[in-house]
Specification:
The protein is mainly alpha-helical. The longest helix has 29 residues.
Length: 71
C-alpha cells in the first residue's frame, strides 16, 4: 500500500518530469547524431557525445530520486 501511495499522486508526475524530458531529448539527439554519422556529415561526434551524456545525467537523476523515495 505504501508503494502505491508513493507512485500515485501529483508529486510523482513532478518528480519524474525532468528526468523523462532529459532522457527523451538525449535519445533524440543521439538518434540524430547517428544519422549524421551514417551520412558522414560534420558534427556527428559532438551530437553523439552530448546525447549520451544527457541520457546518463537523466538516468543518474532518476536513480537518485528513486533511492530518495525508498527511504
Amino acid at each position: 500500500k505504501q508503494l502505491r501511495k508513493t507512485l500515485s499522486g501529483n508529486n510523482m508526475k513532478k518528480q519524474y518530469t525532468i528526468p523523462l524530458v532529459l532522457f527523451l531529448s538525449g535519445m533524440a539527439i543521439t538518434i540524430i547524431g547517428a544519422l549524421f554519422k551514417l551520412m558522414h556529415w560534420p558534427g556527428a561526434n559532438i551530437m553523439l557525445t552530448v546525447g549520451m551524456l544527457t541520457e546518463a545525467i537523466a538516468i543518474i537523476t532518476l536513480i537518485v530520486i528513486l533511492l530518495k523515495n525508498t527511504k
